[in-house]
Design a protein that fits this description.
Elements: H1 2-22, E1 28-30, H2 31-34, E2 42-49, E3 52-56, H3 59-70, E4 73-76, E5 91-96, E6 100-106, E7 109-112, E8 115-120, H4 126-134, E9 137-138
Antiparallel strand pairs: 1-4, 2-3, 2-5, 3-9, 4-8, 5-6, 6-7, 7-8
Length: 139
């Protein structure tokens, strides 16, 4: 009887540990899973570089941004401790129906919804960010 209790206890502990790891906020996620707003709810994107902001409500441009960020995955850093936060970085604001979110991409990390993520399986390039910014309407 003791052996059965010990075996059941081990199975329960292992099961709880596996569930904790697979449902952890620190596992690798898609871009959409990091956001507080759904892609389908985003109606406007504003992007600020060097203190100047441009915006768009064009759904094609909004989808372009999501397509780019969704090709990567994101792993939240423990305690949201970044290895390097630059003094200047692009800020992307996502606006929807009574919801707002933001992204601050830099190097191989990004702050998304006040959480810091390491970018996995690629990087967010400054070339893309600058090209995307110049493709937006002036506000």
């Amino acid at each position: 009887m003791e052996r059965i209790i010990i075996i059941l206890s081990i199975i329960i502990v292992v099961s709880v540990a596996v569930l904790g790891i697979t449902r952890s906020d620190y596992r690798e996620k898609s871009f959409n899973a990091t956001l507080a707003i759904k892609q389908s709810d985003v109606v406007k994107i504003s992007m600020e570089i060097n203190g100047k902001t441009k915006t768009t409500t064009d759904q094609v441009k909004i989808n372009e941004l999501f397509t780019y960020f969704n090709r990567l995955s994101y792993k939240r850093l423990r305690g949201d401790q970044t290895s390097h936060m630059p003094s200047k970085a692009a800020i992307i604001y996502l606006d929807g129906n009574k919801q707002h979110d933001f992204i601050v991409p830099y190097n191989n990390e990004a702050m998304i919804s006040y959480k810091v993520y390491q970018v996995k399986h690629g990087q967010i390039t400054n070339d893309f960010l600058i090209k995307y910014y110049h493709g937006l309407d002036n506000s």
